[in-house]
Design a protein that fits this description.
Strand content: 25-35%
Shape: globular
Distance between the termini: 17 Å
Order of helices and strands: HEEHHHEEEHEHEEH
CATH superfamily: Gcn5-related N-acetyltransferase (GNAT)
CATH topology: Aminopeptidase
Number of strands: 8
Radius of gyration: 16 Å
Strand order of the largest sheet: 1-2-3-4-5-6-8-7
Number of domains: 1
Number of helices: 7
Length: about 200
């Protein structure tokens, strides 16, 4: 697969998307990003699903705690150098979702949001999600990536399906009813090829 030459498994990394003709960058979150992330958590389209529209000091404590959690990476996604999305990339075996299915030790998972509302509805989510999946599947042992969007988040569920995720079952999580979804390597590779051939 071509992506294996172009996308490494390290952070930060950049990838030039030939369809959107934009440079996608993923970098790790630092404490300096807290105020930006805090503003995104107060966006109307984010509040219902993330429920982190907290006072700044409380959200800062939340970020500090998550930055010390070694089972996940907190990431900022950028388009042409403009920060516009937030990602949590994690290992299932050390995550709560590992209690809900018989996972493989190399299974990975993803949470995501688009921050600024002016980036919504323009199709940017597809190259971003496909690129982060390519990054995850560059770890040879990983055969599956999981997601568990809120069952009411129909737009996000549609995005996951289009990028190669299959609905498995509803799961009752502490903060939501989620839809457990699997993205298997073989289906992702077909979706990646479709995107690169502008046949998505």
């Amino acid at each position: 697969m071509k992506y294996k030459q172009e996308i490494t498994s390290a952070y930060p990394f950049e990838y030039y998307d030939p369809i959107q003709q934009m440079t996608l960058t993923f970098r790790e979150v630092t404490l300096e990003d807290t105020r930006l992330l805090h503003s995104w958590m107060h966006e109307k389209h984010v509040i219902p699903y993330w429920k982190l529209n907290l006072p700044f000091k409380d959200y800062q404590t939340h970020v500090e705690k998550h930055l010390t959690d070694n089972h996940q990476k907190l990431l900022i996604g950028e388009l042409n150098g403009k920060p516009m999305s937030y990602w949590e990339s994690y290992w299932v075996q050390d995550d709560l979702i590992g209690n809900y299915y018989a996972f493989n030790r190399f299974d990975q998972g993803i949470h995501l949001l688009i921050g600024p509302s002016d980036f919504l509805g323009k199709g940017y989510i597809y190259p971003l999600l496909l690129t982060i999946l390519a990054h995850k599947f560059n770890i040879r042992e990983t055969a599956k990536v999981v997601a568990e969007p809120d069952i009411q988040n129909e737009k996000m569920i549609h995005v996951f399906k289009k990028c190669g995720f299959t609905p498995i079952k509803e799961v009752e999580l502490p903060d939501k009813t989620g839809l457990l979804m699997f993205c298997e390597r073989s289906l992702f590779e077909r979706r990646w090829t479709d995107w690169q051939q502008n046949n998505f």
